[in-house]
Each structure stands twice: as structure tokens, then as C-alpha cells.
Design a protein that fits this description.
It comes from Anaerobutyricum hallii DSM 3353. The protein is an alpha/beta fold. It starts with a helix and ends in a 6-residue tail after the last helix.
Amino acid sequence: MCSCRLWKEFVSGDGNILSHRDKFLLATNILYIVGFEKDFLDALKRNYPDSDRNKWRYNLNWMRDREYKPASCSNCKYCNSCNHRSNIVETLKGKKLITFNGNHDFVSVDESFKQISYELKEALKSKKDQIHLISGQTGIGKTSLYIDAINSGKYKKPLLIAVPTSDLKSELIQRIGKENIFDIPSFDDLPLIGRRFDIQQYYNQGDFEKARQCIIECARDVCEPEELNKFRVYLNPQIYLEQTSSCVIMTHARLLSLPDKILKRFEIIIDEDILYNSILVRVGSIKISTLKKILEKNYLSYAKREMIQDLLALKEKKCCINRDYIPNEIDTRIIKRCKTNDNIAEFLKAGCYMKLDDYIKYLPPIKLPKCKMIILSATLDQTIYEIFFPTRNIIYHEVKQAAYTGNLIQYPAYSMSRTAIKNIVLDENSDYPTLSMLFEKIISHTNNVVYGITFKRYEEALPLGYTLHFGNLTGTDYLSGKNGIIIGTPHFPTYLYELIAYSVGISEKSKNSYKNRQVSYKGYDFIMMSYKNKILQKIQLYLISSELEQAVGRSRLLRTNSTVYVFSNFPCNQATFCNIDYLKDADDPEGNIDNYLINTMFF
């Protein structure tokens, strides 16, 4: 039985008739409690028959879209006579918005490191084509383990190390030593003076033949043997990989482009979660106008023209699978005839499509090489890998977590999503009419922060010496030991979640399903915008959690006495939660419901 007197009075119909202001106070809160919206509308019908329920439905959706914060109990007429908490959500639920129901069974950093070392050695002993997932926290020392494995030279097959970026690859080569590992260059490693942009454009358009020709031309102007060798290896990696007996290092993207036959010559160790970093978030788009022009020119095969016609006929936000998948490269003559900057080749080879506004969004096939591989990362999720690779033998090596040496302090009062930040600044009555003012207010709740992480579009407004943005965090070590601030819940576009889910046979309309609801993830129960379908929900939470884990990991809290402050309503592991309303002044800690009622459609 709930202890909110106002809610009891509203639902039962007993006592005084509630004013519009009372009902509005309830409305801002029941949005955040599963099932209460229906109870609210039913009570209106039963006890307030003159109410316009359709208008209330519209108003509830309007508040939800603008991420209205639950109004405080201090605004209630029963504030001094009711056994309440800080707002009606917490009063009705009888608990905090974020709760932890898991088990913090931490071990020492050294013990956790020993477990990872043992599990890596066990995985390297295996001879079957399995996917080994070894969970290891950021900063635990995973990199040093496979460097030791390279230097030991005791494995029958040479090791192949795959990392997310060229920058991280360069750092590791310095640590390992050029003489101890063979580098497979990526595009970013080539000295393409004055030609990089043009060649990148050819790649973006899927004209790989033209890109290759330009790279060969650049190679002719190179005199230094070491630089010339980069071109040779880049252009012909398979030849060198077939011949070498050395350990090898490359990027995730290079690994995914190579045939299984070549990869089976090596013991593959993948640094960081390749599914998250290099596969799931690679969504492309092509203009519908471009596809119509291609159809007019009649360049493609009948099957491909029919596929495009079917895509153009899709209803808005509807998905479909590519049932005429072509794994081989598209004839470059066709690409040249199409005369477009869109990547026709990638589009035609995609695995899943969605029609969205004036574009067709597409997701490349979700594939991993069919060979043994070992993945070490802080963001691995066994269930996610089993969803996307149901026919593969996935071995999860569980490693106990170590407690942070540093501090992780989280403020969950606001979601701080892109939309939430935008609405705070654009609100006519906002105390923070600019991003700089908003960020300065948030930073005032921290101590001695050196760097900040937020969304790319808002990064320049952070008044700090070092700034980064979500999506560009992997392998950043120079912030180790420094205090930092993270502002934002890194939601991905709903079309990305739905495309990914559709690729594994899950279809759910965000219009009807994507709303505030109670969710559970890694032992935490909390409320956020999410889906009803549990698998789709799991995919969404995995992606958000992975990005936040990357952000928190920049300070290397595991081994340094630094502090990271997170302003997000998505719970971070090992965080200490501070539930204050950090945007309100000290003399107005609870806020006032009248601020919500100004300039809305309710009056």
C-alpha cells in the first residue's frame, strides 16, 4: 500500500476534489512508474468524468518527450501531513530511483589481474574455434599480459593482436618494440600527403579500385624504405600474413576484412570489445533521391533494382533484411556510372535496412571470423554475444572485479541526454540559457576536474583544459590519474537499436514501446527511456553501458587515486550516488511546481 495521501485521494475519489494543479503534480510523477499512467487515466474517467482524457494523454506524452522531472512533494497541499519522501515517485515506490540488488564481492587488484592472466593462458591452450570472452576492468593491466605472451614466444602459432584504432596500435608497437611484432598498416598510417581526403572519398563511395590506384601513385613518390614498405604491406596484407612467422598487430577493421584461412594461422587476441567498437555502431545511410536516380539509369541487376524498389515502398521506420546479400565487391564500373557520393557498394552489401525520413539507413552484416579468437575487454556481455552469434561456441571466462582505488561519484537527478541538455538551455524560464552557464553550474559540484567528456556537439562549451566526446574515447591513456567530469547519458538513435534488433529477428515499434520504464542491468534497477522487449532493451543498455564504461575508464580509477564525476541517470558500476537536485540554488532545493506550469498548454 502506497503512503502518498494525494494519490490515494485521487484514485479513491474520497475526500476533496483535486485541483488541476494537484493533478498536474501527480502527472509529472506517474510518468516514471510502470503501470501508473493507466491508473491515472482510469481514475480520471471514474472520479472526474468531465475531464478530457484525450487531452491528458497528449499532455502526458508532451511531458515525457521533454523529460519533465518529477515535481517535489514540497508542492503538495499534504506536504506537512503525509509520510512522504522527496517526490511522489519515491513515495509511491517506497525506494530510491536507482537501487543495487547485486553483490559487490570485490577482490584486490592483484588478485583480479592474476585471474585474467590465468584465464588468458587457458584460452590460448584451447584448440577449438571458440570465441573466448575475458572480462577485465579498464586499467587492470590486460595489455601487459599479451605483451608478455608475445615476448615469451612459447606458443605454436604466432599471436595476432587486434586493437580498435591506429593510435592505440602505434602506442603498443612502441611498448612491444618494432623488432618484436609485425605491423599491418591501416589507412591512417600511410603518408598520403595532399591526397588523403580524396582517397578517403573514394573509399566512402565504395570505389576501392580507384582508391587503390591513388595509393599506388602515392607510393611511387616515397623514397624511404620503411615508408615504402608500409604501402606494400597495406596493399597486399594477405601475402605478408601467409609468409610471416612473427607476431602481428593490426586494427579491428583490418582483422574483419581478412579471410578465415589466413587468420587461422594465428592465435588471435582482440583488445577491447570488437562487437561494440567496430561492428554494431557502423550504421550508414543513403539518400532516397540517390536510389531513385539509380533506378532511372537502370545500371543494376534486376534483383538489386527490385530490392531498391521494395525499400522505397517501405513505410516510415519499417525495417527489412537483405535477402539478396552479395559478399563480393560490387563492379566498380557500376559505382562510377551512378555518379554519387553515397556508398553504393556498402549499401548493396548491407544486412538490414530501415526507411527513415529522406534516407534509407542500413547496417552491415554482423559477422566475426570463423576461427578461434580471444577478446579482452571491460564491456563484454556474454548474453549479447550469444544473441548475435547463436551458432558459435562462446566461452565466458568470469573474472572477479577489483574495487576502485579512486572515487566515482554520480549525480542521477537528470538524464542529461542530448535532448535534456537542449531543453534545459532553450527553456524560456531556464536559469541556464547557454551551454556554458549550464556546464559551469554542473562543474561547481565537482573538485579540481581537469578534463570533461560530453556529446560532440556540446564539447566546445566545456570550460576545461582537456575535452573529449562520446564515441572517441577508446585507448586514451593521457588522462590517467586526473580528475574528470562526464556529462550525459549517451543514448544512441532509436533507429540504431531497432536496426540491430531487427537483424536478429526482433521487431518493435519505438512509437508504442520506447518510453520511461523500470529496467534492470548488471544488478541495478532504475528508470529510463527504454523498450518493452527484453532483448531489444538488453541491446540498448549494453551500448549505453559500454560507452559510459569507456568514459569512466579514462582516469584509470582502478589504480589511481583520482575522482570521476558522472552526471547521468544511467548507473555506473561502483558509483556513489548523490541524489541532490544539482541545478537548483541552495535556497530553493526542492524546486517549485509553478515553474513547470508556466508557458505550457495546460492553462
